[in-house]
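The passage that follows is intended for readers who have already worked through the single-chain material. We present the inputs for a multi-component assembly, then the predicted structure in tokenized form, and finally a short commentary. You are encouraged to pause after the input and sketch how you expect the pieces to fit together before reading on.
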Amino acid sequence: MPSETAAPGAPAAPGQIGLCVPNVGARELDYLRECIETNFVSSVGAFVDRFERDVAAVMEMPHGIATASGTAALHVALLVAGIEPDDEVLVSDLTFIAPVNAIRYANAWPVLVDAEPETWQMDVSRVADFLRDGCERRDGVLRNRASGRRVRAVMPVHIVGHPVDMQPLLALAAEFGLAVIEDASESLGARYRGAPVGSHAGLACLSFNGNKLLTTGGGGMILTRSADSAQRARYLTTQAKDDSIEFVHGAVGYNYRLTNIQAAVGCAQVERLPEFLAAKRRIAARYAEMCAGLAGVHAMPAAEWADPAYWMYTVRLDNKHFPDGSRPLMRALASQGIQARPLWQPMHRSPAHAGALALGGDVADRLNAECLSLPCSTGLDAAEQERVVDAVTRWATTASR
Ligand SMILES: *Cc1c(COP(=O)(O)O)cnc(C)c1O
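Having made your guess, compare it with the prediction:
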């Protein structure tokens, strides 16, 4: 059953409708050919520089440092932000696992913040309660009262193309002296109060994995407003090289660079960003229209301060109408060759992060049970989307209580 087992970023089998597959073509091929013909295939090359400039411009940030993956970008961003072993970092509970893993790579500890029910994003009021009631300042250092550890940063993850409410979060971070690292991997192209998601904290990360809005096959980027941070990030992602002739390294760095081949694909993809965003919004509008006609099937949220990118179109099935949650719909769609996926297992349930401190988690659990992402590849055509709409509509009208 390829529809149930295929990875979300993989090409769909013939006749199947994939969840969110890459959209690459002639322009990507032209740029790749240029890499091969000029022999610039590795981590030095014109496409890497150009990709960093192009993405930074889209993000309205002065510096971009391309990396081998989004996870690598998050790891180095944490180091650049000054996270030290045993620090605590607040992070979204309802997220793909990468940002939480990155916190552990830095030998720091995640504090999992439940989702907020309206937008599904990090609940900033829980962050406020934790900082005010669960922390204290000792010798000028903010510490978690329960664990005694230093609370150093917050990493809001803008999930499924919609922003976290950044204004109150940035105010809290300023009040309590926290670093802020935005994980904008899923929300490239979205805007928060008029400015790009990922441009609000001064330090952000992106992913160019296969199913992301722009793909390089695999890749990521650190975006920063600080020239010093940019220099440090570049140093750490290139093995912390002090002298490349004598092989002198000033620290334990990482081989986290993106190759010119990957960046070539990325340059072609950035040029197509307006086309991709328009496709995501067109697909979202059609699904929203479908939801408006179905009792208990809720369209994806959009806060009044948000201009979502609709990276992963996700509906929520009200448990009054659908007490068994979203999995029966997922199976019904799979039987018709249509790939759909729930949102991630909340991190407070992940065996990989067993024992992590969690601030709530009930909302994330409920969203995990009730939500389902529907096919929303930028190459999805109208006829394919109608097949999905028909299948969801037929299932919802017969399964609804
Ligand atoms: C995709 C993703 C990442 C990065 O993943 P990579 O595969 O390492 O590029 C990070 N955070 C979130 C929320 C993601 O969805």
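Commentary: The pocket of pyridoxal-5'-phosphate is lined by residues 69-71, 95-96, 98-99, 157, 183, 185-186, 207, 209, 212, 220 (CB under 6 Å). The CA atoms of residues 115 and 364 lie 6 Å apart. How closely did your sketch match?
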